[in-house]
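Entry:
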Amino acid sequence: MTVRLARAEDLPRIAAIEISAGERFRGTHMDWAADAEPTPLAELEPAQAKGELWVAEDSGELAGFLFAHALDDALYIHEVSVALGHQGKGYGRALIEAAADHARASGWAALTLTTDRVIAWNRPLYEHLGFKVLDDGEMTLGLFDRLDHERRLFPTSAQRCAMRRPL
């Protein structure tokens, strides 16, 4: 397994990872995520150009990706997805560690993200990787606004939470 910054030629292949990863939500309260449109290239291209998009690769095949950006005092993980056939093999952890290394080197105080608090492979996995669920009063303004936006946008939005991992 190799984790590296995404290259321009990787971008068209990221949608297939996102679609595959979404299938895991079928039959859950987040079933809608399986039918969500993948992230548009117009969002991935600037992230790739800024060095805020990583891919995990196995024998030349893309297995996962992580898309992040600065938010307040942290590097915010906008999305981390691993294709179904590669889940449970450490790709997500490796992508998060690559983002943590980048954030640390860039002087960020933490990694942050928003996720579902109920799905067994979301919040518990992030907690295992050192993230802590934040109460509303513990969030930075930008993170609070992001979570509030998601809670209004997504079905089953009451299940959303924000998490932080100090670096």
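The mean pLDDT is 94.
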